[in-house]
Write a structure and sequence with these properties.
homodimer; 227 residues; alpha/beta; 8-stranded parallel sheet; 9 helices; 8 strands; 39% helix; globular
């Protein structure tokens, strides 16, 4: 018997003709269950897990939180997130570089949603492919980290176009990397000029008040719509 | 008329049944032309372009260098690399998250290889998909940057498995990110325990003597084989 606090599910991608149809099913299902669903996306190492851990700690006394950790391999993040106080499942994508709606549906079934208020999908670390797949989420949260550079929206525009909010993580290191939030906003003009941007540091907690306030507002709005 | 110093080619992915067959054609073609071909891969923002610029400056008096800049969008890197003294073509992948052998073949035809000794492909910033596609290269060079974390080989094992060398960039910032080269090597045990690792800083030039020495050795070996 394993002493892991979470299950590992192999969710290899299947050929699904209509991703948007399955995504609509997922969205409808979670609406009926009154569960708010966040798709969290970024490059590898931008700080999805650290951001998630601090977010869970800020919200766990108020909401019951579930997390689906999607990775090509390993379960290091699932262990970290489970220790923070969320119900966690590790999804192995079998080489796939993104989650699609069908993989998400199977993940939600295995996680079980009846005892949850919010679910986060920590998508595979990738600034390209995950942006192409609706997974039935309420909101798409994109993280860009300062060391990646302020020009990234020019090169990977779709991710910044689909995002509902952009968290600029590791903002405490901006002097080390000559990162300019003004240049970032210029870069966003092409993809999504009205995108809400919040600089944060998942390490120090800077910016989390604003991020948590935004998130709770979305949750409240969504739950009012579900009534 | 554009005043750009390079061409932009739209290389949207086509459905090719046998990538390995086309990769073998590319490899054979470049062998006949006596051109050494490097596939450079990393996450977004790990420092591929900065590493390339410094590498070009170190080698340009000795070799004629060509670069194919592959991006989903934009041409900011092509302009930078062209200014460093290489013959450059910008490839737009039309949404594709990686280069395959057919896209590479078309890129090489458009670039023209007759006046070149070395060609670098700067692949799309992505730690997953590019690792799956042989593009006919002589060597696969992988860059991991310190801010991404020392656990990345656990989560993205294929990239570290296919790599011929791993450059650990932004090594000058390791204290800021609590990055351990020993932990990185532990993480590599799973994917590729014998992978050669060189810590570098493309910003300061640290580690470049060793990297350039390794690269020149590979070029010499390859050109001897081509005789």
């Amino acid at each position: 018997m394993s002493d892991r606090s979470f299950e590992i599910l192999e969710t290899k991608e299947r050929v699904i003709e209509d991703n948007d149809k399955v995504a609509a099913e997922v969205r409808d299902y979670l609406k009926k269950k009154n569960v708010f669903f966040v798709n969290l996306m970024s490059s590898p190492g931008a700080g999805k897990t650290t951001t998630l851990v601090r977010t869970i700690k800020a919200l766990k006394d108020k909401y019951r939180i579930g997390v689906m950790e999607a990775d090509v391999d390993s379960d290091v993040d699932a262990a970290t997130v489970s220790a923070a106080g969320a119900k966690v499942i590790q999804l192995h994508t079998g080489g796939s570089c993104h989650m699609d709606a069908d993989m998400t549906k199977r993940g939600l079934q295995a996680l079980g949603v009846d005892d949850l208020d919010i679910i986060f999908l920590e998508n595979v670390g990738n600034l390209v492919c995950p942006a192409e797949f609706d997974v039935g989420q309420n909101k798409e949260v994109v993280i860009l980290s300062v060391p990646e550079g302020d020009d990234k929206p020019l090169k990977y525009p779709l991710m910044f176009k689909v995002g509902d909010i952009l968290l600029v993580n590791k903002y405490d290191t901006r002097a080390v990397f000559d990162f300019s939030i003004n240049k970032l906003c210029d870069s966003l003009n092409y993809a999504n000029p009205s995108l809400k941007v919040i600089p944060i540091s998942a390490k120090t907690g800077d910016g989390f008040d604003e991020w948590i306030e935004w998130l709770e507002k979305q949750i409240t709005l969504s739950k009012e719509e579900n009534k």
